[in-house]
Amino acid sequence: MWAPCAAKLRDCWAASSLILSRCLSLGVSMAKSKFEYVRAFEADDTCLPHCWVVVRLDGRNFHRFAEKHNFAKPNDSRALHLMTKCAQRVMEELEDIVIAYGQSDEYSFVFKRKSNWFKRRASKFMTLVASQFASSYVFYWQDYFEDQPLLYPPGFDGRVVVYPSNKTLKDYLSWRQADCHINNLYNTVFWALIQQSGLTPVQAQERLQGTLAADKNEILFSQFNINYNNEPLMYRKGTLLIWQEVCEVTVKEVKLPAEMKGEKMAVTKSRAKPVPLYCDIIGDAFWKEHPEILEEDS
Ligand SMILES: *[C@@H]1O[C@H](CO)[C@@H](O)[C@H](O)[C@H]1NC(C)=O
Ligand SMILES: CC(=O)N[C@H]1CO[C@H](CO)[C@@H](O)[C@@H]1O
Ligand SMILES: [Mg+2]
After folding, report:
1. Using CA atoms, how far apart are residues 296 and 152, in angstroms rounded to an integer?
2. What are the Cα distances from residue 81, in Å, to 84, 132, 212, 240?
3. What spacing in Å lies between the alpha carbon of 294 and ligand 1's midpoint?
4. Less Cβ around it within 10 Å: N or C end of the chain?
């Protein structure tokens, strides 16, 4: 019995569009359904005003992911550059991110203190960063891993932390960079012992047990002739992304009135882009050089 049903549907449509147009013309809000009250069950997760909001992503089970996709040890520059590409995309797509810092399989994004994007709701910040990042990771994979197909979809967990002052935000970023240094120094010696001295992972771990940074530097230098300080900065310091004006050259078709025919011309214009830097953020020099990052209305 289709006819009565269709008729009912039509009535229904007519009625609802009547209500809708009446509401629009009178400028009043639609009547609330009796189910509306469930809205109040949503948690209020507004981030404290005037604080720095940090979203940190971390690759889910990336130890296994790196094995399966043959990441180079101790570091894989393709993987690090892909992470940075995704982070740049996140900064370009989303609002109000003033700086980002990444190392290994993690990236942190700092939203400006006065951001009112999505009314500062933590869940919106976190899910938008995580989903934009993860889809970019898959989208750009082939550009960085030409000979290595992506075997399964990677995931990233996210968390939101709110920092109340310049000092706590700087200490947060310093903490992540110190972590990068500790891990990278360890991994560099660990893999040199395995790859160049033929130790098993267990033996390498035992050899490094209880060693200090100076001891690790000494092993690298005396046994492998590696001066750790000469290792590439991207591995030792991680990657910072900040907004900088970049000159862009695009080729445009320009109509010249005299000849009335298309002419190709190079047009340069400057545009703000998230640019990678590999430098120390623990000392004051970086912050003195870039005061605009922490400024009130950055
Ligand atoms: C944070 O640092 C910036 C840049 O030095 C400064 O303009 C701003 O006033 C500082 N904010 C606070 C709350 O101290
Ligand atoms: C610090 C470190 O481990 N650096 C190595 C990272 O991997 C590249 C090769 O991809 C080596 O050249 C670096 O020495
Ligand atoms: Mg991880």
Report:
1. 43
2. 5, 16, 30, 12
3. 6
4. N
**Helix count (H) and strand count (E) of the chain?**
9, 6
The average confidence (pLDDT) of the chain is 90
List the structure tokens of 196: 């160049």
Mutational test site, ligand 2, from 144, 227, 231, 234, max ligand atoms within 8 Å of CB: 231
Which residue's CA lies nearest to atom 7 of ligand 1? 295
DSSP string, 29-41: PPPPPTTGGGGGG
Tokens representing 285? 């020099």
Distance CA 59, CA 235 (A): 17
Identify the residue whose tokens are 């011309």: 265
- The count of C-alpha atoms lying within 13 angstroms of the C-alpha of 225, restricted to the half-sphere facing its C-beta, is 1
pTM across the whole model:
0.84
Check: CB of residue 56 under 8 Å from CB of residue 108: yes
Whether residue 141 has its Cβ less than 6 Å from ligand 2? no
Q: Given pLDDT bands bounded at 50, 70 and 90, which one contains residue 23?
A: very low
* pLDDT for res 12: 45
Measured in Å, residue 250 CA sits from the centre of ligand 2 at 35
- For ligand 2, whether the C-beta of 226 sits within 6 Å is no
CA distances for 46 relative to 91, 110, 118, 120, 125, angstroms? 21, 16, 9, 5, 10
What is the C-alpha end-to-end distance of the chain, expressed in Å? 64
Mean pLDDT within 91-120: 97
Query: Which one-letter DSSP state was computed for residue 264?
Result: E
